[in-house]
């Protein structure tokens, strides 16, 4: 039975996507292994938001060159924010890598699937739930819109159904994830917002706590603040960029 190893660095979204990617691989018959040396497939989920993180990714890729020489049959793939539209340049820089795929995607050579819709096989009592991707705020210091793209929200019904299933699997707390969760829903029909989503999730039996991040003060609304104060399951905690 083939084995996989996922190395993850960066934000909570990367951690959530690695967890779901692992579940997807297990559905395909792979088994996890704690070291890259034992794996048939190694995936690096990268981050380049800070230079220190990018340096660690590059160092890890260089370290895996020798492993590829020792095990020519090893498949090495890279995802996360290192991967942009200039894949040919990445292939030239890192010829030891077999596949590059964009953050939030499933590896296409293994089949087609929506990674956001792949539920964790063995979720912890506190679990991340991605609700949107991308950001429309092109802040001068941030690379996220160039790597994650424009904002794309998941429908309320889809998220609600997922959280209900996670609760059925033993989850007690969910953290809703997005690069800018405060602008959730503006791209959906009828434009539901984060307050509407929180109100819907608050009705789910068995769910004890709801958190969300990351926020942008530009998109914080009075309605959202009042909803946080009113709903009993929503933690009174707001994560803002420094």
Explain the overall architecture.
InterPro entries: Methylthiotransferase_CS, Methylthiotransferase_N, Methylthiotransferase_N_sf, rSAM, rSAM_horseshoe, rSAM_sf. Its cofactor is [4Fe-4S] cluster. Keywords: 4Fe-4S, Iron, Iron-sulfur, Metal-binding, S-adenosyl-L-methionine. GO terms for molecular function: 4 iron, 4 sulfur cluster binding; metal ion binding; tRNA-2-methylthio-N(6)-dimethylallyladenosine(37) synthase activity. One of its GO terms (cellular component) is cytosol. This protein has 242 residues and is α/β, with parallel strands linked by helices. The chain has 2 domains: 3-100, Methylthiotransferase, N-terminal domain (Rossmann fold), CATH 3.40.50.12160; 123-230, 2-Layer Sandwich (Transcription Regulator spoIIAA), CATH 3.30.750. 32% of the residues lie in helices and 17% in strands. The chain has 7 helices and 10 strands. The chain has helices at residues 12-27, 51-70, 87-93, 144-148, 156-168, 194-201, 222-230, and strands at residues 3-8, 31-32, 41-46, 75-80, 99-100, 126-130, 132-133, 152-153, 173-177, 209-213. The strands form 3 sheets. The chain has a 5-stranded parallel beta sheet with strand order 2-1-3-4-5, with helices on both faces. A 3-stranded parallel beta sheet has the order 6-9-10. Helix 1 (12-27) links the parallel strand 1 (3-8) and strand 2 (31-32). Helix 6 packs parallel to helix 7. It is globular and about 60 Å long. It starts with a strand and ends in a 12-residue tail after the last helix. The model has no long low-confidence stretch (mean pLDDT 92).
